[in-house]
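Protocol step 4 of 5: obtain the predicted structure for the target chain.
Materials: sequence only (see below). No template structures provided, no constraints applied. The aim of this step is simply to have a reference model before the mutagenesis design in step 5. Sequence pasted as it appears in the construct record:
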Amino acid sequence: MTRRRSAAPQRRRGAVAVMIAVMLPVFIAAAGVGIDYGIWQREASRLQLAADAAAMGAGRLLAAQTASAAQFAAAAMAEANAVTGESWVGTLNQTPTVTVAANWSTVTVTLTSHANAYFSPLIGVSAPTLTASATSGLAVQNTACVLALSTTASPAIAVNNMGSITATGCGIFSDSNASQAIYLNSGSLVAKSIGAVGIVAKSNSGSNTMTPAPTDGDAAEANPLANMTAPTPGACSYTNASFTAWKATPYAFTQSANVFCGNTTIGGNSTTDTFAAGIYYVVNGSLTFNNANITQASGVSFVLTGSSPGGFNWTNYSGSYAITAPTTGPTAGVAVWQTCPGAGSAATSSMNGGSTLALGGAFYTPCGALNISNNAHLAAASGNTMGVVVNTMQVVGSGSISANAASIGSSSAGQLALIQ
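Step 4 output (structure tokens):
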């Protein structure tokens, strides 16, 4: 007896074939959407690169502060098109959105593009509109005119026992990352801004004043004078000299004998001291003004240098004495400069007594400490700006620093950079 083969498997195979035939376009479309999605991601990434380039292109017009909106837009699109070759960003809108800050410090560019679509329309999926923004700006190099450069000292700036630091129109800043990068204890900090890489701390003393509120965890501020190169002194004019004996005529220092080797002391016994304009060097020794009566020191820099530079020591008990820096030359804008030794830290500089040292220019000891105590005052000379850039500083015992520079060193405009 012959058995007949069932037709059911054949019908099932036929049904599967029909289903595959029906679903195949759907599978292909779904795969195509996946391909489109990958393309959209790539186009979005490329569009962000274009926005970054556009912001930098527009940012080059910030410094002049005269460009029109159309000029900003044209500069932005020129860079966007150059970096992308006008491809792989979809259909790029050639009219960007450009926003310039009121103070001309930043410019933001937003680009839009309609993404390319190849397979997604087959299942009714529309290509997205892509957007990307970037901001460029002229980064300010420094905001501080009272700056401690040590990255580890704790504290790098200490203000105790009725000491005070005032920075008018500029900031007080510590590059230290310590938990007490700045420490205030029964003292005063008043500035345009107060900040540190680490923590600005204070005691529970009711006599503390800190205005404005400080910021912690800031980016380090660069040494604004780092690009300056200290000049080299000539042969020694004096060695371990003391200009303290009384004399009826002033000790009149000139550039014909301006190199002091070893420890040098000036002042006392009711003498007066004058300095002709120029640079005075102290090589491998300290410079001590002890009851000095400085009556002339305009266009003057004191440079403590050598393999082991000493400190600048000021001990005057009354009066106010002015030293103003040259406005040109290798020490332009620096009144007191202690260079760094070949290795290690430099000697500490100190001020004490009840007098005021009024500087026009910077007090600059990048590798050495500055300690001010006993009612001594470091301030700006009349009609001048003054800044302090040191490794560390301590202001105690009613001592004070009164700085007033908008910036120190090179232009505060800085270089153009992407901000976000």
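Step 4 remarks: The CA atoms of residues 63 and 104 lie 8 Å apart. The first strand starts at residue 91 and ends at 92.
Proceed to step 5.
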